[in-house]
Amino acid sequence: MAQFIPILRTPGLKTLLHVGCGTAPPSRLPDCFKTGNWKEIRLDIDPKAKPDIIASVTDMAAVGTSTVEAVWSSHNIEHLEGHQVSTALLEIRRVLKPGGFALITLPNLEDIARLIACGKGEEVLYVSPAGPITPLDMLYGHQKSIQNGNLYMAHRTGFTVQRLSRLLIEAGFQDVRVTTGANYDLWSIAVRKS
Q: Alpha-carbon distance 1 to 104, whole Å?
């Protein structure tokens, strides 16, 4: 069980919990968190990422209830087993203050399936900090990272607009918006009103 870590408040700053942060530098945060009004707390299951908190998004007991104004999750939830997603979303909602929001991005299964069905499964679509990315990498996880021993990079579930919307609503978020992105991804914002 994770040890509880109090979130230290910085006067005048809102707290952002960056779940599944990996080694991404602050420069890779979405623009809305680069305003100077946010203090980033980094959480990851992999100690090699050197997060502030080592924990799984399915068990963030180290983070108090209603302690952060926002949660950022970039390409993290798809690494969970399908049956763990609801637990993770409930944990994200739990740590948010009323009025707080979760910003989540992850691969769009419909876009990926179309590419694979058209015979483009192994075509390099873009180059990420981890290396070249193909539709099969988006479906199953970055193969080169997995081959090099980073099993945390495996994808174990997938999302469509409908599935992600439903799961966020079932987790108790009252205001949920999910849209398709420009890079074979989905973007969602979900607000905890109470």
A: 25
